[in-house]
Amino acid sequence: xxxxxxxxxxxxxxxxxxxxxxxxxxxxxxxxxxxxxxxxxxxxxxxxxxxxxxxxxxxxxxxxxxxxxxxxxxxxxxxxxxxxxxxxxxxxxxxxxxxxxxxxxxxxxxxxxxxxxxxxxxxxxxxxxxxxxxxxxxxxxxxxxxxxxxxxxxxxxxxxxxxxxxxxxxxxxxxxxxxxxxxxxxxxxxxxxxxxxxxxxxxxxxxxxxxxxxxxxxxxxxxxxxxxxxxxxxxxxxxxxxxxxxxxxxxxxxxxx
Length: 257
Fold this sequence. Notes:
The chain is mainly α.
């Protein structure tokens, strides 16, 4: 009789434990948040914040990926075509035909416009205060800075999401455990089926925060590396453009002579 009672108690305990484990999923948490939104106001705020962060992160990851793919496919062609075109006017016309997202053509056009503007105002106070080399150099610096800033669009969002999403999820976990402990204390039931469910549901928020943060951190590091390489190409191209518009000699011409 005692063995039967013990077996029945063990079966009942095992069943309650299984039921408690079944209540630790995200679906059960979402169901309780919908059915009783007042008790889960902070959890709703955390969930909506993480959802917004995830949407922004995905948007900028996709946008920057497309931008870098297009840039990689056009940058070398634009640079080589500019230097290989014999006539300077044809080279500038080729740069004007490039799409708006192409940065190297915009830097070259800035230098060309600065050189042309300086030439049109020869004999004026502008030429007296700044020579051709300094005027072109200033235009190139502004162009490189502008295109570098455009290249970094969205990285601030990715860095912010990567650094704050885990803490947002942790806030949801701490507040969820706090509320679960209050409800457990009020009911006086501290069994595993009463504790595991609410605590497990609260821990889901931390997991969601990490799920949002990890892709953002990886993408931020990846795009930062790509931008560093592209910025180096900006600087190299700008130096060559400065020599060309300041002296009139193309890259490699002096060596050939």
